[in-house]
Here is the input.
Amino acid sequence: MLTNKILVAPLFKYLDIHSYYFYRLLMKNIYIYNGMIHTSSYLSNYKYYNNIFRKLNNKNTIIQFVGNNYKDLYKCIRYINIFKFREINFNLGCSSKSAKRCNYGIYLMNNYNLIINCLNSIKEASNIDVIISIKHRLGLYNISYDYLLDFVGNISLYTSCKKFIIHARNILKNNYSTYFNLNKTILDYEIVYKLKKDLSHLNIILNGNIKNLFDINKHLSYVDGVMIGRGIYFNPLFLVAIKNYILNKNYINNYDIENFNQNLFFNKNKISKYIIFIFYNLYNYIVLQKKKNINLYNIIKHIIYIFNNIKNASIFRNRILRSINYFNSFNNYLDFIYFIFKDFI
Here is the structure.
């Protein structure tokens, strides 16, 4: 199924239970990878994390851990078994200064033995049928196909990990800026295509700057799946295009990248019934969360990106942010929708 081939990346400090709800409102069965959790953080605050896990759709949410202590990793997995996550992901891609200092994330990629011990600990501690995967980059500072082939080949040989999510970049030496490591490094999709060809028995997922259906369609000709992060977060209506693509792969022939959001949002210059339906559900969700004393901004901050690439976006963003202050005066969803879209409905 194509649903299993298109995944939402674990954007650290971006994704939370509110964005999960929002994404699944747009595309019900999308697979979302949880932002990485350090093993020491989980063990120190497991009650806090477990309270979050109880609210997740664990069937379609994949948990991700980061760290370098396989004994701690074993303890973490034993704790979370009750939630029956379908997949556990081990992060080998984080390139932050903290990751460098504490030796985790991408800085483990040259330590085969430790990675193998960590993955085997996950297997030993987890439920029998859980999928074990890793998310990593092409390497540290240099790109070498021989290194990548050796890395993936050895990990798959000595562990039960057969799923590799590959961010098709390396990192800059002694530069810990997320911006520079995303925008000033070279994307090399071809090296991942070649890896899948040479290790065809493994599940190879491609990650990195995938922004439209044409990208997805091209990559799926070479690899088993794609993972998309910022392309969805900053343009959530992309999920609707993906849903249409999954339902009808030929849909890409009529996909208008320039006007998709605009056509979805408006019908003869009026807000479409689909968008009204989305905001009706969002209103009900916000009301429910408000009863739990949730800060409404923590919900709204995800929703505002639904206005990207449409006309009057700045007007709608301003209104939905202002709605936080007026929410108590709304009698029902009609007041909420009218406040945001008046003059357009």
Observations:
- Residues 319 and 340 are 5 Å apart (CA to CA).
- The two ends are 38 Å apart (CA to CA).
